[in-house]
Amino acid sequence: PHLVGGTFEGRVIVAGMDTRDYGPGQMSRQVGLVFQDPESQLFNMTVEDEVAFGLESLGLSPSEMEERIAWALGVVRLTGLRQRHPLQLSGGQKKRLAIATVLAMRPQVLVLDEPVTGLDPLGRHEVLSVVEQLKREREATIVMVEQDAEAVMAWADRMVIMEEGRLVIEGSPRQVFSRVELLHDRGLAVPQLSELAHLFNQRQGTDFHFNTEDEAYSALAGELPETRFLKPLHPKSAQSPVFSTPREVLLSEKPGFSGLVQTPVAYPPVIQVEDLCYRYDDGPWALAGVNLSIEAGDFLAIVGQNGSGKTTLVKHFNGLLRPTRGRVLVLGQDTTGQSVGQLARKVGYLFQNPDHQIFAPTVWEEIAFGPRNLGLSEAEVAARTAEALALFGLEDRADTPPAVLGYGLRRQVTLAAVWAMRPQVLVLDEPTVGLDWRGTRTLMEEVSDLNSQGHTIILVTHDMKLVAEFAHQVLVLDEGRTLAYGPTRQVFQQEAILRQAFLAPPPITALARRMRPYGLRGDSLTVEEFYQEYMALQRLDKEQGRKVTKSQRLCRLAP
Questions:
Q1: Angle between helices 507-514 and 213-221 (to 10 degrees)
Q2: Contact status, residue 301 vs residue 461, Cβ threshold 8 Å
Q3: For residue 518, what is the DSSP state?
Q4: Helix runs in 288-425, H state only
Q5: For residue 202, what is the enclosing H or E element?
Q6: Distances (CA, A) of 244 to 417, 443, 486, 494, 495
Q7: Angle (CA) 511 170 153, round 5°
Q8: What is the pLDDT of residues 354-369, one digit of tens each?
Q9: Are 150 and 122 a contacting pair, CB within 8 Å?
Q10: Which stretch of DSSP H or E encloses residue 459?
Q11: pTM score above 0.90
Q12: How many CB atoms lie within 10 A of CB 208?
């Protein structure tokens, strides 16, 4: 009530302090808050100064301040960046720095607003592990606003679901996540393995209640007692090599294809990257000799830990950055000789933050801006704008200022604005950050439809479930270098490479790999795919059991 207007009813008591009587400065000694947008709370000149700022306000000695700074930066893996300016960090690194500034103060209550959004999978695990340790060792209370169902399942003791300002569901994660259909109806995600249990119960009449890999393994392996001696149904796929250099795409990796292809079929590249090196002013090499060939109509996911060079790479595709060494060809032409405006006709780019590219007074004007700057007639501009509004469900928002829309709708506006320019290549940099499950599904299904129409999609993301479900190819970057490049299914089988890049496969893929001794291929990418393979294996097991029984009867009847 001290800073924000509105109507306040009831009471809020934190650590015995009534928030009506104590201001934010007084409350900050008891409550640490990490905002959803890290840029809104970073303002110092160096990473080290950012962490030190709160400690100075506590009046700590220099030695204790140094100890806490070193500890907090070590926790979030920013130790080597103490003298870096916060604005020079990647989006994920900024989030980790914001968390470090609060962790260093060791508050009694720690409030985290989507703390793992934008972090790589193992980075999320490390941050949440430290939060758990802080709670356990210092008896701190953790309040976390989060969309990541796996994170909530792994770390929360209690969860509540809010809808229109009210608490509508409350209980342990296990209790709440068992209500899969109810949560999906409210646009919320559930852990993949909870979805798997629900799928079995719905289709097979089972009574599974597993939520974790260990629980799912115990329940499902017990249903396949005879298959542990079988060979996998598709033994070659799990051991296929990963290509770390530009290559031809196998038709068998294309969605909707069924059958065996003996030879690869080449597609003309829309983007060719040759020995690309890039260095920011007075900084380290962000890219160090990347080679990449992206073919027309492909759906490529670029993954890697924060700061691995993903955003730096894709900014070369539309000329926002120019190579320090090497070259980038778009539709066969070197980007060096083309302006950003010329490249925008071929490569559409969605920034991590939609607010970085929204500026028009209405949604209509926002979408019309690009086509108008392409020199199209007003009739064509109007036709494309109207079509984009309809395609992305924004018709009733045409006269609304985009800046006042919710985050998910602002993201839809930016996608519609880029689509209206009809680029052949669409680059999406962390497009689902800040979206709930329904918003994510809507966005990705729209992008997938564009891909099916022939658009080449390049997706930068930390969400391995999205990669597994939608991407045909995966590029793994680490410290500006290519670790792996190949079909999604094959890349997710390379455990050593994923560990090196601080990545982990989706939970369903990890479960499938663990169940290889029971006859599964071990490379399932989605819940539905795992279910179908498991049921095929179970049917095979029953068929083999019937054959054994028949053989035994014949032996007994033999003279």
A1: 40
A2: yes
A3: G
A4: 310-314, 340-344, 363-373, 378-391, 407-419
A5: helix 192-204
A6: 34, 30, 7, 12, 15
A7: 20
A8: 888 899 999 999 999 9
A9: no
A10: strand 456-460
A11: no
A12: 19
